[in-house]
């Protein structure tokens, strides 16, 4: 008889905050928040901050009084540090499983079916994972296990919420599973959003158990196949496989709010060129081409005293491409068409869609004399550009948008790039 499947979900606790604390142990017991681009909103909170009732995504100015009152330590988002720490965690996790799906920057699904020694129970193996990650990276994690990905997610939620679990919980046992489901609200189920929760509540489905005992066919008729699969997963029937290789993005969006309001077309063009450069780099990283470029601009909707304006434009390309220059040219042409003087713009961005693998065949236009894709010499040029941008990140803006970077998002509280820049390594005294 084959062993029951066991999927594990390893999730880093308060990941951005934990990354900052690794190199600032003096903050381990203090309230810490990480802010979004422009230091505008809260994107990560320590447990001490959560206990103060500060919600995710709240604008900083709305909770400034709490920051002052409780001396909350603030950090600007340091994505260079976070990405490197994530890579270290994921590399370690690969040692504990033959199959792994990196789900996000701080989460990974592991196939733990039969991988732990026969003399060790799954909980002990989960604790071994936690200790190894903490010892070698300093990042605290929790481990949830179950026969499906949805149950592993639910187990991880409970492992984080209830300290008596020791940070590891296994929901393979149906009896333990039922006890937990009866006390957890249905909105904590993976994939059940706010609107779906409202409809479920209207039907008298309040807890996870209320959802689990429903008929999948009935749920599919009232909602959709995704919710029906969730019901099956909650009952131990796997409907979602591990994705060993992350799927290519079908859309790539690059946008930021500006550190100051922009009024001139030239300034907007510089910012948009930088975003196009970054989007094209992401496109080439997954070896894809885009067939559609969209651009948008908008004023600040919260500045109600200012005139409001927002527009977008989309251009379908005659030939799919991954060439930065082509994408910038199309984007700037669209920007010029939708730009209106007399407004103070707070944000702009570019979206690449109709994305497909660069090597895949496509249908040509009989009357199109252009060469689809990127000519071989341009491929070398783009690879060189990517190499330069990775080595000298500031060169992205210089090459694509001029020398005036005053529009760039603020990061006044950013920490050092402790693991990726020789000049910013920790100094031990």
UniProtKB/TrEMBL annotation:
Keywords noted in UniProt: DNA damage, DNA repair, SOS mutagenesis, SOS response
The keyword rRNA processing appears for this protein: no
CDD domains in alphabetical order: PolY_Pol_V_umuC (cd01700)
Claim: NADP is one of the keywords in the record: no
All residue ranges annotated as the UmuC domain in the record: 7-193
InterPro entries assigned to the protein according to its UniProt record, in alphabetical order: DNA/RNA_pol_sf, DNA_pol_Y-fam_lit_finger_sf, DNA_pol_Y-fam_little_finger, DNA_polymerase-Y, DUF4113, Rev_trsase/Diguanyl_cyclase, UmuC
UniProt similarity note: Belongs to the DNA polymerase type-Y family.
Database matches in PANTHER family: DNA REPAIR POLYMERASE UMUC / TRANSFERASE FAMILY MEMBER, PROTEIN UMUC
Protein name, UniProt field: Y-family DNA polymerase
Organism per entry: Methylomonas rapida
């Amino acid at each position: 008889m084959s062993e029951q499947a066991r999927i594990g979900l390893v999730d880093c606790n308060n990941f951005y905050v934990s990354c900052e604390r690794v190199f600032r142990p003096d903050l381990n017991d203090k309230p810490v928040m990480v802010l979004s681009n422009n230091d505008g909103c809260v994107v990560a909170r320590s447990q001490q901050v959560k206990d103060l009732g500060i919600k995710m995504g709240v604008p900083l100015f709305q909770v400034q009084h709490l920051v002052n009152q409780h001396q909350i330590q603030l950090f600007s988002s340091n994505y260079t540090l976070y990405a490197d720490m994530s890579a270290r965690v994921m590399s370690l996790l690969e040692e504990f499983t033959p199959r792994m799906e990196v789900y996000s920057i701080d989460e990974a699904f592991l196939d733990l079916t039969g991988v732990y020694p026969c003399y060790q129970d799954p909980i002990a193996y989960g604790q071994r994972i936690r200790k190894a990650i903490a010892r070698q990276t300093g990042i605290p994690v929790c481990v949830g296990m179950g026969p499906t990905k949805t149950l592993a997610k639910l187990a991880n939620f409970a492992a984080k919420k209830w300290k008596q679990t020791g940070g590891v919980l296994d929901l393979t046992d149906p009896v333990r599973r039922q006890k937990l489901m009866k006390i957890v609200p249905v909105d904590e189920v993976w994939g059940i959003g706010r609107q779906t929760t409202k409809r479920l509540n209207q039907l008298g489905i309040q807890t996870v158990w209320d959802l689990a005992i429903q008929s999948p066919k009935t749920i599919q008729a009232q909602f959709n196949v995704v919710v029906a699969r969730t019901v099956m997963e909650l009952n131990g029937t796997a409907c979602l496989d591990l994705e060993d290789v992350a799927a290519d993005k079908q859309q790539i969006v690059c946008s930021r709010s500006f550190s100051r309001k922009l009024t001139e077309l030239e300034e907007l063009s510089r910012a948009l060129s930088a975003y196009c450069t970054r989007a094209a780099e992401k496109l080439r990283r997954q070896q894809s081409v885009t067939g559609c470029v969209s651009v948008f601009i908008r004023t600040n909707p919260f500045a109600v005293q200012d005139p409001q304006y927002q527009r977008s434009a989309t251009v379908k390309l005659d030939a799919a491409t991954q060439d930065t220059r082509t994408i910038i040219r199309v984007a700037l042409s669209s920007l010029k068409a939708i730009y209106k003087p007399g407004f103070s713009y707070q944000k702009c961005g570019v979206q690449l869609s109709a994305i497909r693998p660069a090597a895949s065949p496509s249908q040509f236009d009989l009357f199109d004399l252009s060469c689809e894709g990127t000519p071989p010499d341009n491929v070398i040029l783009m690879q060189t550009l990517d190499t330069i941008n990775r080595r000298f990140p500031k060169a992205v803006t210089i090459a694509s948008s001029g020398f005036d970077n005053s529009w760039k998002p603020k990061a006044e509280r950013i920490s050092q790039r402790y693991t990726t820049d020789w000049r910013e390594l920790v100094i031990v005294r």
